[in-house]
């Protein structure tokens, strides 16, 4: 697919922002009724030199304060009561990413230990799609819970014995 890198400048108050967009040339042709061949449109857009993409920032939650702040952020973003989100996480793992539990319970589906893991104690039994690596990664554990609505009213009570 032919793509065109276009530069842009924008103002927000007194600040000037610059950036780079990558747009498929056929999309430009649909939006602006211009030819879809990049060499035919150099006067219509400023084609920038190819650049390496900016590195993606990796969020690492290492302290209880960072974990708690991230839970609050995700709760607000998803409309989950903050007190419920924090209560369940603290009751399940004391905000400890390496916490494990339910080793003495046997999963009826697999015949193995339920094995709860991480901040929200996601189990191998009920969440086999969550790897141990992801379950013990505080951010991924928290994101899984919020992205899948596990703390919503009605769902929370069936997923966590500590839900109030």
Please, could you describe this protein's structure?
Mean pLDDT is 77; it is low at 1-51. The chain has helices spanning 25-32, 64-78, 82-93, 132-135, 138-147, 156-159, and strands at 3-12, 15-24, 100-101, 116-117, 122-123. A three-stranded antiparallel beta sheet has the order 3-4-5, with no helix packed on it. Strands 1-2 form a two-stranded antiparallel sheet. It is built from six helices and five strands. The termini are far apart. By secondary structure, the protein is of the alpha+beta class. It is 32% helix and 16% strand.
Characterize this entry briefly.
By secondary structure, the protein is of the alpha+beta class. Helices cover 32% and strands 16% of the residues. The chain has a three-stranded antiparallel sheet with strand order 3-4-5, with no helix packed on it.
Descriptive keywords:
164 residues; alpha+beta; two-stranded antiparallel sheet; 6 helices; 16% strand; globular; disordered N terminus
- What is the count of helical runs? 6
State the strand order across the main sheet: 3-4-5
Specify the biggest β-sheet.
Answer: 3 strands, antiparallel
- The stretches of 5 or more residues where confidence is low (pLDDT under 50) are 1-51
Give the N-to-C terminal Cα separation: 52 Å
Number of strands: 5
Rounded mean pLDDT is: 77
> Which value, in Å, is the CA radius of gyration?
23 Å
Query: What structural class should be given to the helix and strand makeup?
Result: alpha+beta
